[in-house]
Amino acid sequence: MTIEKLLERFAAQEAFGRLCEALSRTEAARVCAERLAGSARSVLGAAAVGRLGGMHLFILADREAAAYFYSDLYNLREGRGVLYLPSSYRRSAQHGAEDAAAAVLRTTALARAAGAHADEALCIVCCAEAAGERVASGEEMKRSTLTLHAGEQVGPDFVCEALAEYGFERVDFVSEPGQLAVRGSIIDVFSFSDSKPYRLDFFGNEVESIRTFNLNTQLSEAKRSAVEIIPNLRGAASAEGVSLFGFIQRYAGQRGARPTVWVDDARVVAQRVAAQHAAASESAIGGEELESALRGMRCVLFAAAGEGGTVCRFSTAPQPAFNKDFGLLAANIRENEARGFDSLLLTDSLLQAERLAGILTGVGGGGKGLEQLPVALHEGFVDSAAGLCCYTDHQLFGRHHRYRLHGAPEKSERLTVRELSALQPGDYVVHIDHGVGMFGGLVKQQLNGKLQEFVKLVYRDGDVLFVSVHGLHRISRYKARDGVPPKVYKLGTDAWQKLKNSAKSKVKDMARELVALYAQRKSARGFAFSADSYLQHELEASFIYEDTPDQLKVTKAVKADMEDSSP
To answer: Which end of the chain has the smaller Cβ count within 10 Å, N or C?
Structure first.
């Protein structure tokens, strides 16, 4: 079965048709969708977006629920027009600053909503706190956007001045959103509207080419014909912001479509919005404004008995709990087959599907009645009206399910000035050429008539080394056992070089010993273990976390060695 077939089966039931009819009847329709268990809400949302089109805002009670719902919807829609709108109040735990990833996701979602085409179905998923925040108006967003096209006649000086006016910070190397760097005729800039930075190559006063590039390798990647460079609009949202509901209603109306708002738990959402308004009244809407906005829009309420409007009752139940008893699972699959239900395994991992098939064969149930659907959802469900029983592999094996927020900016591996600022004087750092020294802070000095910033490193007997910010890639934080201070050498001696040479010599000695050991193993004969049985598959499938590609590769190599007659 495919994702399209799953959505078609779900959309064929009477309750779904009643919901779509009610939403199409009036501009302020109010629909209560009841008895939706597990990820059936995500399936309903994906099917309704495909049927109705237009702009849809999904509001979940908290951040985790919103992230899982977004992940489900993104997988069901295969990424088409699904965006995540986080709250701008979340901070980075590492530096105490605003989370750059959240700012990028938020700006990207608003920019897409403002510039969406009339025939594009758009889904925005957020939590209650994010829905209650005010956002920058369309006019402010337009004023703060710098649009550039390849071949356009515009000078690099004008671009730098415009970006500086928008609040972009000029640095030597771009490492995070809101920064730009200039090297001759090339301008690197990291917009808040994209997960990758842009590289603008000028030929005189002409934009010769526009490309995205990798932060860590600095290599150019995809070519762009045009880009929109947008700064962080959080300040504008607080000062002259509008409600998120007014924002999407305006741009959906310009496209001739009515937006639809889906609310998970209306009472909890209203309470969280009211609490946020009490804490930050200028940048958040109140409970009355929320109620007024929902009354004037097409609205679907999940689990909202007694809220009024058209009631659509579905026939879903949570995925049965088997507690890793796969004999019960096999019996349940046979029971579904007898009732005419289709049993689906919802997983995007081919390895997990193979493991489960082997386990079911081992317990005597067989895996013929269980069909794999290559989509990962958060929770399984049973839909009696559609004749579907959807299992998720992580619930069957008791594994942790992770969500993924697509579109978050990549992180630079370069040691940044901000990370250096988190170091305290006296902390140990390592310079690749001079060894371990003590961090002495950031200092500014004149170099060739220009004021530049340097990292001060203090060595033995008060020796001082100044490292330019251009050489930050040669510095790293010292990591060792707690309570064991490193040995700090004097600058100008060969002690550090001797230490590195000694380490290299020991590595070579170890390599020679390993070569001799493996030569002995190749010439000897050992015991060959049997291949994995279903019990081994069941054990591996019950691990809480999914293996990374490297872990999977190592596991296969170890098993191949164990099944070989060579020790």
So the answer is: C
